Amino acid sequence: MAKKATAKEAPKSIASELKTKTPDQLRDSLVALKKEAFNLRFQQATGQLENTARMRTVRRDVARIMTVLNQKAAEAAISN
Question: How far apart are CA 68 and CA 31, in angstroms?
Answer without folding.
Answer: 15
